[in-house]
Amino acid sequence: MARRAGLIHARKTAGYTQEKFAAALEVAASTVVRWESGNHEPQPHLRPKMAKLLGVTLDELIELLYGSPASTAGSRDSLPLLATGSMDYETWEEDLDRVLMCLSRQAFPLGMKLANRWLAQCDPQSLDHHGLYLYGRSLVLLGHLRSDQGILRGPRSAQADYGRALQVFTQLQNQRRVAQVQLLLAVVIEMSGHLYDAARRYRMLADDPRLSPRDRARAQLWVGTALSKAGANDEAVPMMTSALGKFVRLDEAEDWSLAHQKLALAHRGLGDLTRATQYMDVALDHPCGDSPMQQVRRDTAHAHLLLSDPATRDEGFTTLERSLQLAEQHGLMHQAASIISIRQSAEQEDQRRGTRSIFVAPSVDNVVTDAHRRDAELIWSYHQVGHELRPCSAAIALGCYDLGVAAHAARLYHEGMFPVVVFTGANSVVSANRFPQGEASAFKERALELGVPEAAIFTEPSATNTGQNIELSRKVLQEAGIAADSVMLITMRYMERRAYATCAKRWPEVSIICASAPLSYQEYVATIGNEKLVIDDLVGDLQRILEYPKIGYAIPQDVPVGVQAAYERLVHAGFDSRLLTS
Predict the structure, then answer these.
(1) What are the pLDDT digits (tens) for 54-106?
(2) Domains plus CATH for the chain?
(3) Which residues pair with 81 in a beta bridge?
């Protein structure tokens, strides 16, 4: 491989010798020499800090390491041409096989380079039928690479890549490929937290004759997966069991093993640990592969079961930590966020059992019924504004009792969504015991653990309400000399709308994007550990959305009649601990 001249130039421009650069990264100088010679690649966990030192984004760092797809004409990496000047489709197909190998090994940067270099230099309008088919396949594989890294929505995301591929295969009238991409888009919807919508799409595709028998069986399994994540395990288990039988008839060993893994989690959700353990033992005895992604998923599922039994709880935490380290090492940020949520839920459960918890147990008068839960889920959906994510000048992560907000901010930073983040917040009644050092400080510590460089973090430790979160964070950015024309507000899932309405009032000049971890209502309840508290918060936030515009704290928001009615029913039922008192 040729010397990485761009990387060398960037290092020298940033004012580093090889020795000083190595010291800043806490690696040997000989390691930097190997990187720059092109013989080795920096590990994924080093790349965010490396990019920060060089003053470049993660995408720009990837270009320095592997070459820019848009600037390779005339270089060794320029696309091979036939004598006629057309694309060398054989080489293109070979590269796509290499992308598949990268996917299996989670070698994301190289895989994205291989896929992107063809896409960047091809005009789909000038391609013949074969070339357009390869173009569509390249988009699908690029979507896989982004999906496995948890880059789900936005202009450069799995959703965007699959959407473009869908257009290509529709143009080619390749109905099998169209249905396959529709299945992939349903997976993105599930990973984004829209579980019932995903289950509906999977259910239609499970009977779609355009798909192969294996893909139809997988769609049926995924119906159960989405329902199980939503807490509907009694409905999920029959769907998964039926899919399992189909995998047996199709002799699909890998899918058969994965189905056992998912059935184990569904039976755990039903409270049947004996059946869950039986299914998990089969999955462990017949693993469905040994790639980092497969190991992370298998260990995470196993840890979930181990944590459910007091006798194996310590082993569960150990397994979960091993899974988290592997996920972070290989850039599997979606899986890492899920693991962190599971760990937080388990730690909070231990806290409730062993010491005084910050969470108040539901009283007899406030038992959550199915009717309450339906109303809460309606308000939950309303609170999410559904912004398409795009890069912003800066981010503000609003402090609260949920460290998942800090974890999601770290994930978005590593995706290149913003160069700096302000963690803002003093304490509230529910967070004071958990974060005696303050919300902003606790969030900063979590982000540092997840690899966000200290230079990219600002803290604002004084805000005690959402308006102060915005105004004081704006002041922090201004004092740091950061002229923000766009800002990403990172909040708990149900706080998106109120944060948006408040920021639009307090900082009208800035373009606002709201973001939160893609969790369903049931998944979020599991991370917090107290459904009564969650519903009280949902109700309290909706009251503020209704009342604050009247006193100039926020801009008005339309509230559908059904949402208003659900709010009134929940207030009447006693979910009122977070309501304004005057």
Answers:
(1) 887 766 676 677 654 333 333 334 445 443 345 688 889 888 988 888 887 77
(2) 5-70 (1.10.260.40), 79-174 (no CATH), 373-572 (3.40.50.620)
(3) 87
